[in-house]
Structure to design on (934 residues):
C-alpha cells in the first residue's frame, strides 16, 4: 500500500517541478524590477518603472509594438478568414491542396521568411523596390519593410495559417442549418454572408484575433531580423537590447519592468480570449459530425477567384520570400534575376560559412529537439494525468500554471532564466552558457503546449479503461506504460514531432541565453545576419532548411495525420 | 464476504455538497449473487466503486472476506490495486490496443496478483473458455461486437481469480434479445463457479432474474434488502413497491384492526394491522381480478371497463370504480371483458402503508 501511494506522489511530484519553475521564473522579473542597487546597498522601489515610463523611447517602443501587432492581426485575418470560408463552406475541389497551401507555412521558421522579405523590400536594395521604382521611375514607390507596418505585414503572413486553422474550426463547428435557413428563406449569398455567417463565426474570429495579438505582442523573430539593424524596436527586441546593449551595462531592471507591464497586458488578453471562447460555444453544432453542410456552389469564375486568392497567399507568404532567400544565397550581393546575374551564381557564400560553428549549432539544435520533445511529453503526461484524472486538490491551479508560458511572452522567461543562471546560480550550478539552460527553459515554455494537447487526448480516453487495470491489480506507473501510453501514442508522436519543429526554429529564448558555447542553428543564422553578412546568412538559412526538410516531411505526411487539430504555436 | 457498515460518501459539486451514500449497512454472503437496484443517481454505482476502491468513502467500514478494505476509524484505505477483486465495467473497458487474449492476460502479467509465467496462458484460455470466447483469442479488441466485448470483460475479471466479482450495469449496452440470453448464461456461470457477485442495475426484471438478494436504493440509502419475492410481495414502502412494477394506490382510513374504509369502498384485510388513521392501500394489477359474475366474496366492487390493451400474453384493463381509475392485469386466454364488471381485490395481496410514507405521486395514480 505504501508503494502505491508513493507512485501517485511521484507523479504529483514530477508535475510540480515545472509548475514551481514557471511560477518562479514569472516572479523573478517582478523582483528584479523593484530591486534598486546603489552604493548604500540594495533597497526596493519603483525606480525602474519611473525610468521606463519617463523615457520617450519606451513610448516609441510601445507605439511600434501596438502598430506592429495590430497590422499582424489584420494581415493574418485578411488571408485566414476568407481562406477558411473557401475551404469549409464552398465546393472548391482538392481540399487537400488548398489546406496545404494555407498551412504548410506553419513549418517554415518566421525568421527565414523575414530574411526573404528584407531581400525583397529593403528600402534601398530590395528586389521589389528596385523593380518598382525603375518601372514607375519614381522614388516614392519604394516600400519600407523596416517599419512597424512592414514588419507587421510579414509577421501577419506567417500567422495567417494559424488564423486559417482557428477560423476553419469555427466554421466547422457552427451549425450550418442556420445558414441554410437563410438560403431557404430566399436571402442571397452575399447578404447571408454578411448578416448570418459573419455574426455566427464572429466570436471565433475575435478569439483568433486576440490569440494572434498575444503572439504578435511577444513576437521576436521578425522584429529581430528586420527591425533591429534599422533601430525599429518592439517589445521583445527592446528587452533584448536592454540585456545585450551595444554599449554600456545590461539594464535588467528596465527590461524586467517592461516585462512585468507586458505580463499584465498578456494576462488581460488571455482573460479576454477565454471569455470570448466561452461565449462562442452558444452557436456550436449539437448534431453529430457525420452531417455534411450544404456547400456554396462556386461558378467557374468563383473557382478561379478562390484558387487565385489561395495561390496569392502561398506565393506571398512562402514562395516569394523563400525563393528570394535561395536566390541570394548564391550571389555575393543583391541582384535582380537576369541573364547577367545567372552567370554570377556561385557557391562562394556556402564555402565562406563558418562551418565548425554551424555544425556546433546543428548538433546542439538536434540535441535540444530530441531532449526537449521527450521531456515535455513526460512532464505534460504527469501534469495532464493529475489535471484530468486525479481528484487532487488544486489540480486546476496546476493546469492554469502550466498554461502560463503560453500567455506570457517567451522573452520574459529567457530574461528571468538568464538572470537566475548568471546571478543566483552562478557558483552553485554553473548552468549559464550550457545547452542544459536552453533545454530547461525550452521545456518550461513548451509544457503549455504539451499539457493542452494531452489534456484533450486524455479526456477522450474513457476513464474506465484505466480503472479496469486498477481494480485488476495493475499499479499506476504500469497502467501508464501498458494502457495510457499505447492509447495516447498517436497524440504523443504528433506532439513530439511538433515540439521538435518548434524547438528547431526557436530564436526568442535563445537570443538571451546563447553564448558561443551553446549556440543553436537559428542563432548561427541570425548572428551572420546581424553582422551584415546577408548573403552568407541566406546560405546558412538554406542549409538550415535543407537539414530541416526530413523533419518537415515526417510531420507533414505522418505526424500531422495522427492528431488533427494538434497545431498550435 | 462483503460487509459494509455505516458507509458515507459525499461529493462536492458546483451546486453544493451531494450526499451520495448515507449510513449504508450491507452484508453479502459467500457465493451470493447480490444486486444493487435503483434509479440513476441513487448511489448504487458509487457504492460499487467504494467496494472496488475506486472511490474513497468519507466514513464507515468495508470488509472483503476477512480483510478490512476501508475503515475510517483505523484510517485504513486499501487501494483498488490490492483488493483482489474482478470488475466488469458498464463500458466494458476493453483495451482497444490489445487482442482478446492480451486483454485477459494483461492483469496476469502486469498486476499484483501475478501467477507464475507458465500458468498465464492456461489461465487465459480457461477464462475465455468459460465465456465461450476461446475461438476469438487473437482477435483485435476493436473488431468485437458489444456482446463479445461483454464476454471478454467477464473473462478478464474472472481470470484474476477474484474474491468478489463486481459488475456495473454490464448488460445495459446490449440489445434486448441478447440481454435476455446473456442473463441466463451469466447466472449459470456465477452459480457454477460459486463466486460472490455484487451487481448494479436499474432494471428490476434483470435484478429479479439474477439475484439471490436485492438491495433497493434511492437517494443514497438502502430502502429494503431481501430476496426478489420478498421485495415484490412485501415491500416496506410504496417507493419499493413501485420499483418492481405498477401498483394501484387507494387512500383510506383504518376502521378497526382488520378493515380499511376507502374512497371507493371498505376493504377487509387478511390480518390485523397495527396501523391506524390515514393509510394508503396498494394492490398490484395482477391481484385485481375481474369477472362478469360476482364471486360473492369480500373486497368485491363493481366497476366499468374503460379500456383494454392486448399485450400478447396478457390484457391490461383500465377500470373505473366509482370514478377512480384502477389497473388490472389478466391472462389473455379469455375474451376481453366489456362494460360492467365485478372487481375482486385479493385480500392476501393488499399492502398497507401509512399515508406519510407514500410518494407524492403514488396516491393519485
Amino acid at each position: 500500500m505504501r508503494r502505491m501511494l508513493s507512485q501517485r506522489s511521484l507523479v504529483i511530484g514530477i508535475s510540480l517541478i515545472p509548475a514551481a519553475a514557471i511560477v518562479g521564473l514569472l516572479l523573478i522579473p517582478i523582483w528584479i524590477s523593484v530591486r534598486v542597487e546603489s552604493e548604500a546597498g540594495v533597497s526596493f522601489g519603483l525606480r525602474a518603472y519611473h525610468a521606463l515610463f519617463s523615457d520617450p523611447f519606451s513610448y516609441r517602443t510601445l507605439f511600434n509594438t501596438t502598430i506592429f501587432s495590430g497590422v499582424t492581426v489584420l494581415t493574418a485575418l485578411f488571408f485566414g478568414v476568407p481562406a477558411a470560408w473557401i475551404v469549409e463552406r464552398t465546393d472548391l475541389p482538392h481540399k487537400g491542396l488548398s489546406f496545404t497551401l494555407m498551412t504548410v507555412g506553419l513549418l517554415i521558421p518566421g525568421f527565414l521568411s523575414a530574411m526573404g522579405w528584407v531581400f525583397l523590400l529593403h528600402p534601398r536594395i530590395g528586389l521589389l523596390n528596385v523593380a518598382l521604382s525603375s518601372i514607375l521611375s519614381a522614388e516614392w514607390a519604394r516600400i519600407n519593410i523596416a517599419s512597424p507596418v512592414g514588419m507587421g505585414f510579414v509577421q501577419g503572413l506567417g500567422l495567417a495559417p494559424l488564423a486559417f486553422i482557428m477560423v476553419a474550426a469555427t466554421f466547422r463547428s457552427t451549425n450550418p442549418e442556420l445558414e441554410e435557413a437563410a438560403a431557404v428563406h430566399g436571402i442571397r449569398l452575399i447578404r447571408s454572408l454578411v448578416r448570418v455567417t459573419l455574426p455566427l463565426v464572429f466570436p471565433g474570429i475575435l478569439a483568433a484575433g486576440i490569440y494572434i495579438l498575444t503572439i504578435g505582442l511577444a513576437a521576436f523573430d521578425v522584429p529581430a531580423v528586420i527591425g533591429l539593424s534599422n533601430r525599429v524596436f518592439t517589445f521583445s527586441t527592446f528587452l533584448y537590447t536592454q540585456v545585450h546593449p551595444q554599449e554600456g551595462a545590461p539594464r535588467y531592471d528596465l527590461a524586467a519592468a517592461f516585462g512585468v507591464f507586458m505580463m499584465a497586458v498578456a494576462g488581460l488578453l488571455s482573460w479576454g480570449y477565454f471569455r470570448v471562447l466561452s461565449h462562442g460555444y452558444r452557436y456550436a453544432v449539437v448534431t453529430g459530425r457525420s452531417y455534411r453542410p450544404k456547400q456554396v456552389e462556386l461558378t467557374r469564375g468563383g473557382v478561379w477567384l478562390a484558387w487565385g486568392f489561395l495561390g496569392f497567399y502561398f506565393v506571398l507568404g512562402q514562395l516569394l520570400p523563400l525563393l528570394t532567400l535561395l536566390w541570394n544565397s548564391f550571389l555575393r550581393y543583391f541582384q535582380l534575376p537576369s541573364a547577367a546575374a545567372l552567370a554570377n551564381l556561385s557557391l562562394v557564400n556556402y564555402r565562406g560559412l563558418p562551418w565548425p560553428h554551424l555544425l556546433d549549432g546543428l548538433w546542439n539544435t538536434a540535441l535540444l529537439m530530441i531532449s526537449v520533445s521527450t521531456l515535455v511529453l513526460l512532464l505534460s503526461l504527469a501534469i495532464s494525468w493529475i489535471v484530468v484524472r486525479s481528484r487532487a486538490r488544486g489540480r486546476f491551479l496546476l493546469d492554469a500554471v502550466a498554461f502560463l508560458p503560453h500567455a506570457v511572452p517567451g522573452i520574459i522567461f529567457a530574461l528571468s532564466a538568464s538572470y537566475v543562471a548568471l546571478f543566483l546560480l552562478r557558483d552553485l550550478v554553473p548552468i549559464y552558457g550550457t545547452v542544459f539552460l536552453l533545454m530547461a527553459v525550452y521545456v518550461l515554455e513548451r509544457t503549455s503546449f504539451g499539457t493542452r494537447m494531452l489534456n484533450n487526448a486524455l479526456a477522450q480516453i474513457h476513464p474506465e479503461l484505466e480503472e479496469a487495470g486498477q481494480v485488476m491489480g495493475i499499479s499506476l506507473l504500469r497502467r501508464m506504460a501498458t494502457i495510457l501510453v499505447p492509447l495516447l501514442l498517436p497524440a504523443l508522436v504528433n506532439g513530439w514531432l511538433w515540439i521538435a519543429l518548434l524547438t528547431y526554429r526557436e530564436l526568442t529564448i535563445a537570443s538571451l541565453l546563447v553564448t558561443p558555447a551553446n549556440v543553436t542553428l537559428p542563432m548561427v543564422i541570425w548572428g551572420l545576419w546581424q553582422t551584415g553578412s546577408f548573403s552568407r546568412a541566406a546560405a546558412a538559412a538554406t542549409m538550415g532548411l535543407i537539414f530541416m526538410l526530413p523533419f518537415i516531411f515526417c510531420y507533414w505526411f505522418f505526424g500531422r495525420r495522427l492528431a488533427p487539430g494538434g497545431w498550435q504555436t | 464476504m462483503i460487509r459494509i457498515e455505516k458507509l458515507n460518501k459525499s461529493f462536492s459539486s458546483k451546486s453544493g455538497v451531494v450526499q451520495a451514500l448515507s449510513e449504508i449497512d450491507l452484508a453479502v454472503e459467500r457465493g451470493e449473487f447480490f444486486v444493487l437496484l435503483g434509479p440513476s443517481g441513487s448511489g448504487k454505482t458509487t457504492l460499487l466503486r467504494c467496494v472496488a476502491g475506486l472511490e474513497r468513502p468519507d466514513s464507515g467500514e468495508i470488509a472483503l472476506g476477512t480483510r478490512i478494505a476501508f475503515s475510517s476509524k483505523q484510517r485504513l484505505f486499501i487501494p483498488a490495486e490490492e483488493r483482489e477483486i474482478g470488475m466488469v465495467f458498464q463500458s466494458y473497458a476493453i483495451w482497444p490496443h490489445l487482442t482478446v487474449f492480451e486483454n485477459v492476460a494483461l492483469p496476469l502479467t502486469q498486476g499484483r496478483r501475478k501467477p507464475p509465467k507458465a500458468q498465464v496462458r492456461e489461465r487465459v484460455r480457461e477464462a475465455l473458455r468459460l465465456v465461450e470466447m476461446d475461438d476469438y483469442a487473437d482477435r483485435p479488441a476493436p473488431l468485437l461486437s458489444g456482446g463479445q466485448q461483454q464476454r471478454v470483460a467477464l473473462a478478464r475479471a474472472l481470470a484474476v481469480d477474484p474474491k468478489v466479482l463486481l459488475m456495473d450495469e454490464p448488460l445495459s449496452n446490449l440489445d434486448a434479445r441478447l440481454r435476455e440470453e446473456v442473463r441466463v448464461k451469466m447466472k449459470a456461470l456465477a452459480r457454477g463457479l460459486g463466486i460472490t457477485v455484487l451487481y448494479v442495475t436499474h432494471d428490476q426484471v434483470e435484478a429479479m432474474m439474477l439475484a439471490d438478494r436485492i438491495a433497493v436504493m434511492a437517494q443514497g440509502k438502502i430502502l429494503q434488502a431481501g430476496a426478489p419475492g420478498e421485495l415484490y410481495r412485501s415491500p416496506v414502502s410504496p417507493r419499493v413497491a413501485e420499483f418492481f412494477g405498477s401498483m394501484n394506490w387507494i387512500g383510506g382510513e383504518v376502521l378497526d384492526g382488520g378493515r380499511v374504509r376507502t374512497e371507493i369502498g371498505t376493504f377487509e384485510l387478511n390480518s390485523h394491522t397495527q396501523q391506524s388513521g390515514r393509510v394508503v392501500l396498494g394492490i398490484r394489477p395482477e391481484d385485481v381480478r375481474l369477472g362478469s359474475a360476482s364471486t360473492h366474496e369480500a373486497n368485491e366492487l363493481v366497476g366499468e371497463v374503460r379500456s383494454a390493451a392486448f399485450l400478447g400474453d396478457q390484457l391490461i384493463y383500465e377500470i373505473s370504480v366509482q370514478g377512480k381509475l384502477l389497473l388490472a392485469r389478466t391472462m389473455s386466454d379469455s375474451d376481453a371483458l366489456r362494460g360492467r364488471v365485478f372487481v375482486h381485490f385479493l385480500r392476501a395481496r393488499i399492502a398497507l402503508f401509512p399515508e406519510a410514507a407514500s410518494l407524492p405521486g403514488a396516491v393519485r395514480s
